[in-house]
Design brief:
The chain has three domains: about 160 residues, P-loop containing nucleotide triphosphate hydrolases (Rossmann fold, 3-Layer(aba) Sandwich), CATH 3.40.50; about 180 residues, Winged helix-like DNA-binding domain superfamily/Winged helix DNA-binding domain (Arc Repressor Mutant, subunit A, Orthogonal Bundle); about 110 residues, Trna Endonuclease, Chain: A, domain 1, CATH 3.40.1350.10. About 40% of the residues lie in helices and about 20% in strands. The protein is built from 21 helices and 13 strands. The strands form three sheets. The protein has a five-stranded parallel β-sheet with strand order 2-3-4-1-5, with helices on both faces. Strands 9-10-11-12-13 form a five-stranded mixed β-sheet. Strand 11, helix 20 and strand 12 form a beta-alpha-beta unit.
Length: about 475
């Protein structure tokens, strides 16, 4: 088994939980390919580990098919003859007979698939937990799956499991420094620029990083994965939405396409899609957020520190945006084998798109941003991308990342991802943004620059920026 990277906090949570004297129930959510089952496998490496997984609910897959698959997995795990389970209660009872008092972890992976065809699955699972599993004090049962919306509805918000779940884990991408460790462990070492170029496309999704080939340049890896007909990431988009929404993902992909062009609010999304079906659009957006592909950014009043009613939605997944902007439009060329070799930097509008991509990556790594500015998170009133709409009395402005602190300071942060060193034009741009920003009296504006390819001596010598942060330092940030 490959060396396990990261997830120290989650592993400690699980260890602390199982150190008690009663059976525990855990739910782990997270987007497809994020490493949910691998986390459980790592935690259970010194324990009895029983892992069961549902099969994808393609056409004609029945509840009995799911039980038959479970029966085969139970047979292998317990080294007993294959049984025929015509009822989930019978299946759970049979498994109980093979449990011991030793530390044990039972994983129900892709539980949404396992239970989607049988409306009695959840109540029988609940009865099994209540009536039988409490007799095993060193037992941990883990539910996880990629269809977070099903888990949310049927387990987390279900009255069946109310008060029974000891821990919820929402697994996100590896942090930038952890992703760097992941690459190093795989024997992959690129320049800072190329590492961020790669992460801006894959994010910190472990499975995507696992597909990289040692000995290939970053462009060779990207070409193989994204621009060859057999490339793993060419087909991934369709699989994501088919698996997530059981083949009914059309409206979700339409929303994703709108958000791929930038952050926007609910009325804009509805107008763009010509959609007026009551509150269903809010429901769809919530499901995309639960699934880990969309973030909701609140706006706030700088004067009061209170959040406003307006919510902005942002595509938070690096791969999805890159797919929509570059892979999907090239599908015909990919089929014809046009891209034998590809200098990714020569793709149309690549530098501008990478600005979006790196911004998304950095916003998913806010602890590193605050750490670079020596800011204690408890002093932060609000932090988010900030859009100030123009009115008759004030100009509009957009800030990549604005941090408001309790000491009435506004850290105005600019993210720049370029191949060349930044010149003093960046100072003029920042001065213009700060001049446009409407801020109350006695509030300070603190300019901050995050960059990847250096700044000119003139920028450094100006002393204008409070901090000039090389995000390459994040690759080696303390764990």
């Amino acid at each position: 088994m490959k060396k396990f990277i990261g997830r120290a906090y989650e592993l400690k949570q699980l260890a602390d939980l199982q150190s008690g004297s009663q059976a525990r129930l855990v739910v782990i959510k997270g987007r497809r390919r994020i490493g949910k089952s691998r986390l459980v496998q790592e935690f259970a490496k010194d324990k009895i580990f029983l892992s069961f997984s549902g099969i994808a609910p393609i056409d004609k897959v029945s509840a009995q098919d799911q039980r038959d698959t479970f029966a085969l997995q139970v047979s292998k795990a317990t080294n007993t003859p294959v049984q025929t389970f015509t009822d989930w209660a019978h299946a759970f009872d049979y498994l109980t007979q093979h449990l011991t008092k030793n530390p044990t972890v039972i994983l129900f992976d892709e539980i949404s698939w396992m239970g989607s065809c049988d409306p009695t699955f959840i109540p029988k699972l609940k009865n099994w937990w209540d009536l039988y599993l409490q007799d095993f004090p060193k037992l941990m049962v883990v539910f996880c799956g990629s269809v977070s919306t099903w888990i949310e509805s049927n387990i987390i918000n279900s009255t069946a499991f109310f008060g029974r779940i000891s821990l919820y884990v929402e697994l996100s991408e590896l942090a930038i420094n952890e992703a760097c460790d992941f690459l190093k462990n795989a024997g992959i070492a690129y320049s800072v620029y190329d590492t961020f170029k790669l992460l801006s496309i894959t994010g910190g999704v472990p499975w995507y990083l696992e597909q990289l080939a040692q000995g290939q340049t970053v462009d060779e890896n990207i070409t193989r994965l994204c621009f060859q007909q057999s490339g793993m990431l060419v087909q991934e988009f369709d699989r994501i939405f088919y698996d997530l929404f059981f083949g009914k993902g059309d409206i979700y992909t339409k929303i994703i396409r709108v958000l791929a062009d930038g952050m926007c609010d609910l009325p804009y999304i509805k107008k763009t899609l010509n959609y007026s079906d009551g509150g269903m659009m809010s429901h769809y957006l919530k499901e995309l957020m639960i699934s880990g592909y969309v973030d909701q950014h609140y706006t706030w009043s700088i004067k009061t520190g209170k959040t406003s009613r307006q919510q902005l939605y942002r595509l938070s997944d690096n791969y999805l945006r890159f797919y929509l902007k570059y892979i999907e439009p090239s599908k015909d060329k990919i089929k014809r084998g046009v891209f034998k070799q590809l200098a990714v930097n020569n793709l149309p509008g690549f530098d501008s798109m990478m600005g979006f991509q790196v911004e998304t990556l950095l916003l998913r790594n806010r602890p590193l941003l605050l750490q670079a500015l020596n800011l204690d998170p408890t002093t932060v009133v609000a932090d988010n991308p900030y859009i100030q709409k123009p009115t008759e009395r004030k100009k509009g402005c957009q800030i990549d990342y604005l941090i408001q602190t309790r000491t009435n300071n506004l850290f105005v942060c600019e993210f720049k991802f370029q191949r060349r060193a930044l010149d003093t034009g960046i100072i003029d741009d920042m001065k213009d943004k700060i001049a446009r920003l409407a801020r109350p009296k006695n509030y300070g504006a603190v300019p901050v620059l995050f960059h990847v390819s250096g700044v000119s001596d003139a920028v450094h010598d100006s002393g204008y920026f409070y901090k000039v942060v090389d995000i390459g330092d994040f690759l080696e940030a303390p764990r």
